[in-house]
């Protein structure tokens, strides 16, 4: 009988403990937290953020040349027109309005970023024209002008002729500037040393050349005439020993 009362006592105590735990669990904020063991072998790696590659910025295509030098009738003319920015080579150039001075032309390209206006002007004039350059990114334009002036004065620029020796081959070049080429040379006073003469070369230049035969100092006047008939003269001498 005593043993039965003991069992009843323990059963009642167990029921009271269960009831107490149930009441505590029902209270807010008292829910048990389940803890799981962390296993690094099965961890999903966190991806490393990548920095996007910036898109390169292409500067706009522009023509840098804003003015061109004057030229002279009958004299060789060369002037560069340059651009910057854009992308693509070579850049293609053209005149889209107006006209170049008579005797001048412009290349469709000359090098990577430029073109050249060249030739020999034939007319006194000032012309205005629109230059265009084009590449893979677009088009740029620039208004330009060139003034063609009269030819500069015709001037002999030959150096003082060197001395010569009898029996030794001799030559010296004749030079002039200005006027309108081609030039024609002549001896208009005095005389060259015997054995020497004016010789026109295959390149259009003229020399005094030959083999002197006589000793002495010989004085003469060189005269140059351009294609318009303008003339310039200068006196020289050659001593032959």
Short overview:
The chain is 10% helix and 39% strand. It is mainly beta and 241 residues long. It folds into two domains: 62-149, Immunoglobulin-like, CATH 2.60.40; 155-240, Sandwich (Immunoglobulin-like).
Provide structural commentary.
This protein has 241 residues and is mainly β. The protein folds into 2 domains: 62-149, Sandwich (Immunoglobulin-like); 155-240, Immunoglobulin-like (Sandwich). The protein has one helix at residues 2-26, and strands at 62-63, 71-72, 77-84, 92-98, 104-106, 114-119, 125-134, 139-149, 155-156, 170-174, 176-177, 184-190, 196-200, 206-210, 216-225, 231-240. The strands form 5 sheets. The protein has a 4-stranded antiparallel β-sheet, with no helix packed on it. The longest helix has 25 residues, at 2-26. The chain is elongated, with a radius of gyration of 49 Å. The N and C termini lie far apart (167 Å). The relative contact order is 0.13.
Count of individual domains: 2
Portion in helices: 10-25%
Classify the secondary structure makeup into a structural class.
mainly beta
Strand order of the largest sheet: 1-3-6-5
Strand content: 35-45%
The arrangement of helices and strands along the chain is HEEEEEEEEEEEEEEEE
CATH class of the largest domain: Mainly Beta
> What do we call the CATH topology of the largest domain?
Immunoglobulin-like
> What is the residue-averaged pLDDT?
85
Sheet with the most strands?
4 strands, antiparallel
CATH architecture of the largest domain: Sandwich
**Bulk shape:** elongated
CATH superfamily of the largest domain: Immunoglobulins
Through-space gap between termini: 167 Å
Low-confidence stretches: 30-38
| Spatial extent as radius of gyration | 49 Å
Q: What's the β-strand tally?
A: 16
Can you count the helices? Answer: 1
